[in-house]
Amino acid sequence: MSNTVNIQELKRINWVLENLKRISRSIHHLDECACNYELSKRQESRRNNLLRAANEWAGHLGLKVYHQADPRGCALYIVPLDFKNDDDYTGKGMAIA
Fold this sequence. Notes:
By secondary structure, this protein is α+β, with helices and mostly antiparallel strands.
Protein backbone atom coordinates (compact mmCIF):
# COMPACT_ATOMS: atom_id res chain seq x y z
CA MET A 1 0.00 0.00 0.00
CA SER A 2 1.41 3.35 -1.06
CA ASN A 3 1.32 6.43 1.16
CA THR A 4 1.93 8.83 -1.69
CA VAL A 5 -0.38 11.78 -2.13
CA ASN A 6 -2.13 12.15 -5.45
CA ILE A 7 -1.42 15.80 -6.33
CA GLN A 8 -4.12 15.90 -8.99
CA GLU A 9 -6.74 14.72 -6.49
CA LEU A 10 -5.60 17.36 -3.99
CA LYS A 11 -5.86 20.04 -6.68
CA ARG A 12 -9.39 18.87 -7.52
CA ILE A 13 -10.44 18.95 -3.86
CA ASN A 14 -8.90 22.40 -3.43
CA TRP A 15 -10.76 23.66 -6.52
CA VAL A 16 -14.08 22.39 -5.13
CA LEU A 17 -13.42 23.93 -1.70
CA GLU A 18 -12.42 27.30 -3.19
CA ASN A 19 -15.69 27.42 -5.14
CA LEU A 20 -17.64 26.47 -2.02
CA LYS A 21 -15.90 29.25 -0.06
CA ARG A 22 -16.84 31.81 -2.72
CA ILE A 23 -20.46 30.65 -2.63
CA SER A 24 -20.47 30.64 1.19
CA ARG A 25 -19.35 34.29 1.29
CA SER A 26 -22.15 35.28 -1.07
CA ILE A 27 -24.76 33.37 0.92
CA HIS A 28 -23.46 34.85 4.17
CA HIS A 29 -23.96 38.35 2.74
CA LEU A 30 -27.54 37.47 1.79
CA ASP A 31 -28.11 36.06 5.28
CA GLU A 32 -26.97 39.39 6.74
CA CYS A 33 -29.42 41.19 4.46
CA ALA A 34 -32.21 38.82 5.49
CA CYS A 35 -31.44 39.50 9.15
CA ASN A 36 -31.61 43.27 8.71
CA TYR A 37 -34.54 43.44 6.31
CA GLU A 38 -36.59 41.10 4.15
CA LEU A 39 -34.96 39.69 1.04
CA SER A 40 -36.35 40.68 -2.33
CA LYS A 41 -37.59 37.98 -4.69
CA ARG A 42 -34.39 38.42 -6.69
CA GLN A 43 -32.23 37.93 -3.59
CA GLU A 44 -34.20 34.85 -2.56
CA SER A 45 -33.76 33.43 -6.05
CA ARG A 46 -30.03 34.19 -5.93
CA ARG A 47 -29.68 32.43 -2.58
CA ASN A 48 -31.55 29.37 -3.90
CA ASN A 49 -29.33 29.27 -6.99
CA LEU A 50 -26.20 29.58 -4.84
CA LEU A 51 -27.37 26.74 -2.60
CA ARG A 52 -28.07 24.58 -5.64
CA ALA A 53 -24.59 25.32 -7.00
CA ALA A 54 -23.02 24.59 -3.60
CA ASN A 55 -24.72 21.19 -3.51
CA GLU A 56 -23.44 20.45 -6.99
CA TRP A 57 -19.86 21.30 -5.93
CA ALA A 58 -20.18 19.30 -2.69
CA GLY A 59 -21.43 16.37 -4.79
CA HIS A 60 -17.96 16.20 -6.38
CA LEU A 61 -16.71 15.18 -2.93
CA GLY A 62 -19.58 12.77 -2.25
CA LEU A 63 -21.11 15.24 0.23
CA LYS A 64 -23.91 17.82 0.44
CA VAL A 65 -24.21 21.25 2.07
CA TYR A 66 -26.11 22.41 5.12
CA HIS A 67 -27.13 26.08 5.18
CA GLN A 68 -27.00 27.69 8.61
CA ALA A 69 -28.74 31.05 8.08
CA ASP A 70 -27.70 32.85 11.29
CA PRO A 71 -25.29 35.56 10.04
CA ARG A 72 -23.28 35.39 13.28
CA GLY A 73 -21.75 32.11 12.14
CA CYS A 74 -20.60 30.25 9.08
CA ALA A 75 -23.23 30.02 6.34
CA LEU A 76 -22.30 26.66 4.82
CA TYR A 77 -21.16 23.32 6.15
CA ILE A 78 -20.34 20.25 4.09
CA VAL A 79 -22.01 17.20 5.60
CA PRO A 80 -22.46 13.51 4.72
CA LEU A 81 -25.22 12.59 2.29
CA ASP A 82 -27.21 10.85 5.06
CA PHE A 83 -27.22 14.02 7.21
CA LYS A 84 -30.63 15.03 8.57
CA ASN A 85 -31.44 18.71 9.27
CA ASP A 86 -31.92 18.01 12.99
CA ASP A 87 -28.43 16.43 13.27
CA ASP A 88 -25.49 18.31 14.82
CA TYR A 89 -24.01 20.08 11.79
CA THR A 90 -20.97 21.32 13.75
CA GLY A 91 -20.11 17.80 14.87
CA LYS A 92 -20.89 15.95 11.64
CA GLY A 93 -19.92 18.66 9.17
CA MET A 94 -17.06 20.93 8.25
CA ALA A 95 -17.50 24.70 8.08
CA ILE A 96 -16.79 26.35 4.73
CA ALA A 97 -15.20 29.65 5.65
